[in-house]
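This part of the workshop introduces the protein records we will be handling. A record pairs a protein's sequence with a compact description of its fold. Backbone structure tokens are a discrete shorthand for how the chain folds in space. The question running through the whole workshop is how a given chain folds. The record below serves as our worked example for the rest of this section.
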Amino acid sequence: MDKITTEKLNTPADYLTIRCPQCLKLYMVQEEQIRTVYPEFTCTGCQCHFAFEYPVPNRDSILTFQIAPTQFEFKKKCPKCDFLQSEKNEICSACGIVIENFLLLKNETYPRVSVDLIKLWNDVLQEFENGYAHELFISQCRSKQKLDYAEFKYKELGKRAGDESMVSPWLEKINPEKYDPNYAKNIVDEQIAHATTPTAEPVPKFIYRVSAIYSYLVKHNWFYLIGTLAGILLIVMGISTPGMRNQIGLGIALLLSSMGFYVFRNNPQQKK
């Protein structure tokens, strides 16, 4: 097999520098993306298939070798027990862990958080312009009482990006009291509006009852009937009893008032 090594270059700590063994094209590979013992690559320059053994014995001189695309059955180590197994395995054949979930938890910098929230955060990173991804992540954190995790991730992202303004709208949704500069003003305005809104005093029950009785009497002309009967009674008492002559005038007045009320209530023009 054709082999070639790489010289020492000024490479970031978490990257490996490799070269295509055929055309010597230079590549940089992030170590956290390597999941197999023999990671395979295809050169974009000459289409050569090549690989190298990982972990590498010497980071400054990595041996790469040309292979056929199907030369190896690629395998990977379990990140927990180091058992070597097929790259296609999602669950470790030895210890039974779900490999993807274990890696998510292992690489998470925030303690004691569920895998589903980590996956939702990864969705946010992949589709940062998608507002729904943010809303879903924040709502799930709120339902699980993990808004502190959401706050931590957005603040961490803002610091890494060097632009905290890009995450400020979402921090305001998570904790408006802390991050929304207008929060206090909005609360005061709401309190003022509530204080200046007139509130109706509760009406006692007996007033409702009196109002209902009055409406019933008016609707059925009971005021006219009662007034008429009372007026006639006073007139009869005044005529029959010498000492109550003055009741005659009161009875006539009450009788005329009742008749006037009846005429006023039943006037067709008034109803119009």
In short: The two ends are 109 Å apart (CA to CA). The chain has eleven helices and eight strands. Residues 205-267 form one domain.
